[in-house]
Amino acid sequence: MVGRLSAAGGLRLTEVHRFANRPVRLPDGLRWDVLGLYGDVLEGLAQAARSARVVSVGIDSWAVDYGLLDASGRLLGNPYHYRDTRTEGVADRLERVLPAKELYGITGLQHLPFNTVFQLAAEGSSPQWSLARTLLMIPDLLTYWLTGSVGAEATNASTTGLFDAREAAWSNTVLDRLGIPRGLLPPLRFPGDRAGTLRPEVAEATGLPGGTPVTAVASHDTASAVVAVPATQDGFAYVSCGTWSLAGLELGAPVIDERARAANFTNERGIDGSIRFLRNIMGLWLLTETLRTWRSQGLPSELGPLLDEAAAAEPFAALVDPDDPSFLPPGDMPARIAAYCARTGQRAPREQGAVVRCILESLALAHRATLRTAAELAGRDVRVVHLVGGGSRNELLCRLTADATGLPVVAGPTEATALGNVLVQARAYGLVGDVHEMRALVAAGEPLRRYEPSGKESAWAAAAARVGLR
Ligand code: LRH
């Protein structure tokens, strides 16, 4: 994405290269094709060079996954995908060494089986592990290949389970207790810092000017998305909705207490010391895996018509808790939804439209429960929900979320992550001011849609109770 700030202060994004991120299943697990991704990053930069005078480059990606480098800086194998099953049961094994309560007390991180801390424990006695001298999160790895500079950007570091949420520093307690060498983790950098400049070979390969800076952004995609939430007033909640739904609040300080732990809320870092107090909800992964399954079975898999069928389908016919662990790994999602329904005494949805309706209503219910809990735990009033990311294009999901939460939903921008990425770079160059100014820019320049709740609280409350949500 190329972001341009005009002299008049407008912000515009242009897509110059879009590529698939396809995981690859090897005999020893599910991996990312990170070399392919790097190749496409170079191709994207070459396209950018052709279409603009590039003053800075910034990289963000999904969280928790990492590459390991040996003593000479070589990548030790392809990074694992967080949906790989190698972390099954690992958290339980760690309980003796570092009880979950204590870990939460330091990191304030939602317990997810794939948090980096559990992935590292699963590395166990792998040959790579004994050779590993540096751990780089995915955006930091790409930054390293572009610049030769090693560092750990803080918003993404805060998703690892190795990061002290109050101190905003790597936690030596966690590292020492788990026997992870302190030196494995590079020094932190913060959004807006200069990460490095393009290596001469990269400049040559892409046609970008030598010495082009790579700026640390909020390199966790969700953190960048939250930067670009077009909120113009306090009292907002957000749902960053794509593969995952990340639903929560922006706070000035972490909420790390027993209630937050029991509700499995996370305290990830945002820009300028802010805290993203949120929960991961399984998100549109349920839908994309469903479509992928249907495609492989030769069934209709085009989203538009299926959403029309879902809109016309019977409300609340079947409901699932989207966070059921059975939905996490890749696989036949319609079959898993049917199994969930069988397990919970519901009739499984049969028509495709009914399956899609079940997924979207269930997600809306999870948005409702999560935002209510967030507001309660943080002692905040929520008056509006901003739904950003790819999911904001899904009108049915936006409407259902407004109905379920009983709050107005402002949908958009779709490319919140890219906007947040570019805005943090722009600020590093003095082109925009604080986060309020950034958000005002997004609100002024991006098409947003507003959905008012239709006031069916008792029906939604009953539906929520059916799946054990509030
Ligand atoms: C969203 C996301 C989310 C993480 C998950 C691994 O893309 O970064 O915030 O929890 O991927």
TrEMBL record:
Residues 50-227 form the Carbohydrate kinase FGGY N-terminal domain. Residues 237-429 form the Carbohydrate kinase FGGY C-terminal domain. It comes from the Bacteria. GO terms for molecular function: ATP binding; rhamnulokinase activity. CDD domains: ASKHA_NBD_FGGY_RhaB-like. InterPro entries: ATPase_NBD, Carb_kinase_FGGY, FGGY_C, FGGY_Carb_Kinase, FGGY_N, Rhamnulokinase. The keyword rRNA processing does not apply. Keywords: ATP-binding, Carbohydrate metabolism, Kinase, Nucleotide-binding, Rhamnose metabolism, Transferase, Xylose metabolism. GO terms for biological process: D-xylose metabolic process; rhamnose catabolic process. PANTHER family: SUGAR KINASE (PTHR43095), XYLULOSE KINASE (PTHR43095:SF5). Belongs to the FGGY kinase family. This is Rhamnulokinase. The lineage of its organism: Bacteria, Bacillati, Actinomycetota, Actinomycetes, Kitasatosporales.
